[in-house]
Amino acid sequence: MKFSDDAHFEQDVEALIKELHTQYGYDFNGYARASVYRRIKRFLTHRQLSSLEDLRKALMGDSYFFENFLQEITVNVTEMFRDPSFFLSLRNNVLPILSTYPFIKIWDAGCSTGEELFSLAILLQEADLLGRTKIYATDINQKVLKQAKEGIFSAANMAGYTAGYYASGGTQEFSRYYNSNYGSVIFDSSLIKNVVFYPHNLASDTSFNEFHLILCRNVLIYFNRELQERVFKLFDESLVSLGYLALGKKETLSMSQISSSYNPADKVNRIYRKTG
Amino acid sequence: MGGSWGGIHASLSILKDLPATYPIPIILVLHRLRTVEGNLQELFVKRLALKAVEIEEKEKLAPGHIYLAPSNYHVLLEKDFTFSLDVSELENYSRPSIDVTFTSAADVFGKNTIGILLSGASKDGSSGLSYIFGKGGMAIVQDPEEAEVNTMPLSAIDIIPDCRIMKLERIQSFLLSLHDH
User: Fold this and answer.
1) Rounded distance, CA A271 to CA A268, Å?
2) Half-sphere exposure of residue A214: CA atoms within 13 angstroms, side-chain side
3) Name one Pfam family in it (chain A) (predicted).
4) Is-catalytic flag, B119?
5) Using the beta-carbon criterion (under 8 Å), do B78 and A33 form an inter-chain contact?
6) B35–chain A nearest CA distance, Å
7) Which of B31, B65, B99, B130 is catalytic?
């Protein structure tokens, strides 16, 4: 595929971002550009669109097409027990503290297709906390929320997930949590009995509750510094004092204005705790 | 710089004699087992005068550094010379993918990009190296005769016949020669 020269491509993308905001209310202005450009080029290739102008026309004329575009542009790739040491740390360092609350509220921000959510639910179940925990699972994308609710994942990934589960300190037979069915597995729906799913856009929506733990892993990497700062403030408003914030392994709070009221609870695994 | 099987050894032998004051930032993408949370950084810290760091998102490129792609992330570059990380789909069965970083570096640095592709049992890196070359940058491939596994070098030579084929020692002296200017 040939693209017009880079400067031109980039200008056109900026114009498209403005139009999408006007037409659909989604604001990608705070997204890190290297990834946006790459996702758009990839989308053009996959859809066999020859130019950005063709893409623009299709997007403006068809909201269903826009939904698909949204799903492709925002990265939804995820896995169960990504970074097992993170989940081990949750198990050993965070859940024991959360267990001292009579009722626990957790926000899984950018839950995507639910792999992290189910991993978390399994940890809570094994700590005997699931019954008194409510998890709010949100994503910008309605389609992935629907998938997360179904809890159906490819069987091909299960060997890796099982290894991740044990590396994260799991001691049960992992297969007890799901049933296999023609190349797919479906996870036990009782794991997400206390989960509320709904769309939330970190770039524009506000705080909606107070939580003891917020997980937002490998979402902020797609945002520029300003948008990251907005989201950090949003999280700060949404955490109880002494609450926990868990980021991705290469994401840091240290550049943020809110960092002064947080201490690292686990430096390596990027788990922060709000001071009192 | 990118490599896969045999890439650790190859990159270490190129980088070991570069001085701490080496002016050109180097990004190294090596394929690693995604499931193992191993520490590649320690190995490089011990062997090199350059400062070896594992890339943090939004970190800015600086001279005297060798930037290691973290396990299980793609590495991209922004126009302001900061890193963006990405956990999107595997490319060529890999994350990090060499193609992704080569392409992104060429978008930012254009003809000032030098791509070096080392030993590996993969086709990753070829199309990114070709992209660098197409932007007027330099495409260097480790001599397949010397490479521990020659799949990756051969694949690159196949699609970029005009690339420069060099042994590790020669790549090192070439990089050192850039320092003298």
Assistant:
1) 8
2) 29
3) CheR_N
4) no
5) yes
6) 8
7) B31
Domains annotated for chain A, with CATH where assigned, are 6-73 (no CATH), 84-274 (3.40.50.150)
Let me know: does A165 contact A80? Beta carbons within 8 Å. Answer: yes
Q: How many CA atoms lie within 13 A of A144 on its CB side?
A: 27
Cβ contact (<8 Å) for A35 and B57?
Answer: no
Q: What is the ipTM of this complex?
A: 0.91
Facing A160 at nearest CB: one of B35, B37, B54: B35
Put simply, the answer to whether A39 touches B88 (Cβ < 8 Å) is yes
Closest Cβ–Cβ partner in B37, B77, B84 for A221: B84
In order of start, what are the domains of chain B with their CATH numbers?
A: 2-180 (3.40.50.180)
Q: Where is A186: in which H helix or E strand?
A: strand A184-187
Per DSSP (E only), the strands in chain B are 2-3, 26-30, 51-54, 65-68, 74-77, 83-86, 114-117, 138-142, 164-166
pLDDT tens digits along B77-103: 999 999 999 999 999 999 999 999 999
Give pLDDT tens digits along chain A (276 positions): 444 577 789 999 999 999 999 999 999 999 999 999 999 999 999 999 999 999 999 999 999 999 999 989 998 889 999 999 999 999 999 999 999 999 999 999 999 999 999 999 999 999 999 999 999 999 999 999 999 999 999 999 999 999 999 999 999 999 999 999 889 999 999 999 999 999 999 999 999 999 999 999 999 999 999 999 999 999 999 999 999 999 999 999 999 999 999 999 999 999 999 997
Q: What rounded mean pLDDT belongs to chain B?
A: 94
| Residue among B65, B99, B122, B124 flagged as catalytic | B124
φ/ψ (deg, to 5) at A154:
-70, 135
The pLDDT of residue B33 is above 90: no
Which of A221, A259, A266 to mutate: most B Cβ within 10 Å? A221
Is the pTM here over 0.80, yes or no? Answer: yes
Alpha carbon of B57: minimum distance to chain A alpha carbons (Å): 6
* Residue B124 is among the residues annotated as catalytic for this protein: yes
Please count the other Cβ atoms lying within 10 Å of the Cβ belonging to residue B68: 24
- From the list B55, B76, B89, the residue facing A35 with the nearest CB is B76
Residue B36 has pLDDT above 90, yes or no: no
SS3 for A242? strand
Q: What does the alpha-carbon distance between residue A41 and residue B89 come to, in Å, rounded to a whole number?
A: 14
